[in-house]
Amino acid sequence: MQLYNTLSKKVEEFKSIQETTGPVADENPKQVKMYACGPTVYDYTHIGHLRKYVMDDVLVRVLRHAGYDVKHVQNITDVGHLVSDGDEGEDKMEKGARQYGQTAWEIAKKFEDYFFYSMDLMGILRPTLSCRASEHIQSQLGMVLTLEKKGFTYVIENEGVYFDTSKLETYGELIGHDPRRTLRASRIGEVTGKKNPSDFALWKFEKAGEKRQMVWPSPWHQRSFPGWHIECSAMSIEHLGPQIDIHTGGVDHIAVHHTNEIAQSESYTGKKPFAKFWVHHNFLLVDGQKMSKSLNNFYTIDDILQKGFTPAALRLLFLSSHYRSEQNFTFQSLTASQNAFYKLLQAYLTIKKKRQLELAHPASIAPSTTQADQEAQKLLQQFFAFVENDLNTPEALSVVWQVLKSQLSNTQKYRLLLEFDRILGLGLIAMSEADLPISDQKLVAVNTLPPDLQKLFKQRETARKEKDFTKADEIRTKFAQAGYQLIDQTDRVLIKHQA
Ligand code: AMP
Ligand code: ZN
Fold first, then answer.
1. Pocket test for ligand 1, best of 45, 52, 325 (most atoms within 8 A of CB)
2. Do 2-281 and 330-433 share a fold?
3. Is the per-residue pLDDT at 487 higher than 60?
4. Less CB within 10 Å around the terminal CB: N or C of the chain?
5. What is the domain class of 330-433 according to CATH?
């Protein structure tokens, strides 16, 4: 498998640490330790985040297919991520709390739930471990204390404990040059008292009169909190050990967040490298611009659903561009992707149906030819060669269309499509005719149903949420008796007049 490594700026052959340096006692030799920077839970997860986590998901699926046992740890940033990367300004959590009129803790819970709700809809596998920064305060504090003992830190009064980047010979490797020089002129709103412009906060102190909601006592200040970068180092080291195989994040994290993670982790453990492979995802733009609430181009998965799109169409759109290229989202491109997705789903369902008929009448199946078997094998290999070549999903998708156009048997096509979908994650295996688009004329809006059915519909929604499927089925039967068909889709329930 080939993977681009930001550290070497090259596509490299992927080998885990154990494969390079020999097996580690008590560890599975096929284990891959992967840490992914998780969301800052101060606002709704948007489609830019979705792109990043879909591509992390593809990476995990490809590694697992290649036989690796991936331990995927992903954090939840629920404290300490300040509005500016330069360790200045308000904590994003406190800002979110003010904006939504709730406590920082309530905001964290609300948006963490929304993040996983969005991830599940997008068919993204849950990480092996999800960990919250606010529940790892002691390990973060322990790291800062050790770094202090080792002489890497200094305290700025009323500000915090800072990492002295001049103490680390190799600082800034990830961006390929010494950022202390370039950072000198570029920072506005810098903290005064820093010894070098690139020095960064490990631990911050509450400002006089600030009254933060999230604070902990530390040897330096009674009301203090961890810096943003330290959380990822501390949780990665606690759950995966001093060295990991892969670390992922968006390209925006290269210059500061990940550069600082490397500095503090390697200074703390004395081991190099902290992460063998650094995988960075490029950004999703909307109509050519950075997503922002003020531009009104900030879309959540619910916005996508409300506009009549299915999450699989969005997932397919993300897969159609390489993760290292910027991708420009437009509703036009999403419409094209939705059409392509329905074409694929329709073809898959037809193949599946024909195959079932053939299996019921085995005598009707023409025996497979060597040529067809070779063709199927070739397409399978091509698909995996593409995804294993630095996750080339756009090329891999072209193999999917080739399968549909091929002369292969229904069984061969069916098997290939399901095998490919284990990587693509579109969820074909769980889909049926009910997931195909239904023309709007045949649909009935809930609020036009007779009141007793409206009430029943609500009860069924609750039953479905509580996974009380017996009750949900009973209510479905009542609807059928009243002449309506209920169609459960991944994200909504459609009501149709029974023909
Ligand atoms: P945040 O919640 O801002 O810390 O972001 C969580 C992850 O999503 C980070 O790895 C970011 O780099 C990534 N991310 C944020 N915005 C976008 C975007 N518009 N496109 C792609 N990735 C993004
Ligand atoms: Zn991080």
1. 52
2. no
3. yes
4. C
5. mainly alpha
pLDDT at 182 over 60: no
CATH 3.40.50.620 holds for 2-281: yes
Long-range contacts of 23-26 (CB under 8 A, 24+ apart): none
Q: What's this model's pTM, rounded to 2 decimal places?
A: 0.89
What DSSP state is assigned to residue 443? Answer: B
Residues with beta carbon < 5 A to ion ligand 2? 37, 232
Say if residues 323 and 414 touch (Cβ distance below 8 Å): no
Tokens of 124: 């993204």
The residues, any chain, with a CB within 8 Å of residue 104's CB and separated by 6 or more, are 79, 91, 93, 94, 96, 97, 213, 214
Task: With beta carbons less than 8 A apart as the criterion, state whether 450 and 440 touch.
Answer: no
Q: How far apart are CA 59 and CA 245, in angstroms?
A: 13
Question: Average of pLDDT values for 206-221?
Answer: 93
Confidence of residue 491 (pLDDT cuts 50, 70, 90): confident
| Residue tagged 């992914």 (tokens) | 36
Give how far the C-alpha of residue 481 lies from the chain's centroid of Cα atoms, to the nearest Å: 43
pLDDT (tens digit per residue) in 13-60: 999 999 999 998 889 999 999 999 999 999 999 999 999 999 999 999
- How confident is residue 83, by pLDDT bands cut at 50, 70 and 90? confident
pLDDT of 154 > 90? The answer is yes
Q: How far is CA 137 from the centre of its chain?
A: 24
Q: Are 5 and 278 in contact (CB under 8 A)?
A: yes
- The domain spans of the chain are 2-281, 330-433, 438-497
Residue closest by Cα to atom 17 of ligand 1 = 48
- Rounded to an integer, the average pLDDT of 361-367 is 81
- If you ran DSSP here, which 8-state letter would residue 101 be given? T
d(CA 469, CA 467): 6
Pick from 165, 109, 117, 151: nearest CA to 134: 109
Residue 74, C-beta contacts closer than 8 angstroms, at least 6 positions apart: 35, 36, 37, 38, 56, 127, 129, 130, 131
Instruction: Quote the percentage of the chain above a pLDDT of 90.
Output: 78
d(C-alpha 393, C-alpha 396), whole Å: 5
Distance of alpha carbon 152 from alpha carbon 235, whole angstroms: 20
Nearest atom in ligand 1 to 250's CA: 12
Distance in Å, CA 323 to ligand 1 centroid: 13
